[in-house]
């Protein structure tokens, strides 16, 4: 375990997948940190606006006075600063591919995933098929492995895990949609089970019931917008 460093602070939000993945990395590395929870749906704190004036979003990591933004970049910073329990692959090709798929998830899957949550009953089947087509790419990647990172949790597991099973799937569950059925996605279901067996993952993911309620609130806000 590392000594508590001067000023390791995370400004996050309990239901934010981008914050959840940063907490997973800090816990995996054994980095002690102070955590401030933002209720950004109600009001953004002056601290958040001061630290992230560009996007005004969580998470924000402050380390020894340096402000870091954007969760994937924060994960890379954590990996390079605390080198125990590496999360990014060492091999340059594997590293590039982990970044490729992480970008795919945060851009493509997040966009169509949230879009599927606001579809009407009439168009939900088409939206479901669209999401399933995209996540089949991840099923093909995980099929032979326990984790995207190989034998244990890594960068891509944190990115995919925080977004799909522990965020979007909570919304799909609230809507009564079985988006990742085990017969279609056996690899992803096995991987989700593996993730849930990891203590730091369990410590970082939102409580299921509370999260489903929260996702339904988000769906309502998105529909009203
Ligand atoms: N690309 C950013 C996304 C962060 C993000 O979207 N955070 C959301 C919470 S899940 C947020 O702070 N939203 C506030 C807002 O949109 O005003 C990252 O990876 O850190």
Question: What is the strand and helix layout of this fold?
Answer:
Layout: E1 8-12, H1 17-29, E2 34-37, H2 46-51, E3 60-63, E4 66-69, H3 71-81, H4 92-117, H5 124-142, H6 155-174, H7 186-196, H8 199-204, H9 208-224
Parallel strand pairs: 1-2
Antiparallel strand pairs: 1-3, 3-4
The protein binds glutathione (GSH).
Glutathione (GSH) binds next to helix 3.
- CA radius of gyration is 17 Å
What are the secondary-structure elements, in order, as H or E?
Answer: EHEHEEHHHHHHH
* CATH architecture level-2 label of the largest domain: Up-down Bundle
Mean pLDDT reading: 95
Number of domains: 2
Q: What ligands does this structure carry?
A: glutathione
If helices are DSSP runs of H or I spanning 4 or more residues, what is the number of helices? 9
Number of E-state strands: 4
Globular, elongated, flat, extended or rod-shaped: what is the shape? globular
Residue fraction in strands: 5-15%
The top-level CATH class of the largest domain is Mainly Alpha
CATH topology of the largest domain: Glutathione S-transferase Yfyf (Class Pi), Chain A, domain 2
For the largest beta-sheet, the strand count, sense and barrel status come to: 4 strands, mixed
Return the structural class.
alpha+beta
List unreliable stretches of 5+ residues: none
State the helicity in percent bands.
55-70%
Protein name: Glutathione S-transferase
Domain GST C-terminal: 91-218
Function: Is involved in the conjugation of reduced glutathione to a wide number of exogenous and endogenous hydrophobic electrophiles.
EC number: 2.5.1.18
């Amino acid at each position: 375990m590392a000594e508590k460093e001067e000023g390791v602070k995370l400004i996050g939000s309990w239901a934010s997948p981008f914050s959840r993945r940063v907490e997973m990395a800090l816990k995996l590395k054994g980095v002690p940190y102070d955590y401030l929870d933002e209720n950004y749906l109600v009001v953004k704190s002056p601290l958040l606006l001061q630290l992230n004036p560009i996007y005004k979003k969580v998470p924000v990591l402050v380390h020894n006075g340096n402000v870091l933004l954007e969760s994937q970049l924060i994960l890379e910073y954590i990996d390079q600063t605390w080198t125990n329990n590496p999360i990014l692959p060492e091999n340059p090709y594997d590293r590039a591919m982990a970044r490729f798929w992480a970008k795919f998830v945060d851009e493509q899957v997040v966009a169509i995933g949230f879009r599927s949550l606001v579809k009407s009953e009439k168009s939900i089947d088409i939206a479901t098929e669209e999401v399933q087509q995209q996540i089949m790419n991840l099923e093909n990647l995980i099929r032979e492995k326990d984790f995207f990172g190989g034998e244990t949790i890594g960068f891509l597991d944190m990115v995919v895990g925080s977004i799909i099973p522990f965020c979007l799937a909570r919304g799909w569950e609230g809507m009564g949609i079985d988006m990742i059925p085990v017969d279609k996605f056996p690899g992803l279901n096995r991987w989700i089970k593996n993730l849930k067996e990891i203590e730091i993952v369990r410590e970082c993911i939102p409580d299921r019931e509370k999260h489903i309620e929260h996702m339904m609130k988000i769906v309502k806000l998105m529909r009203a917008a």
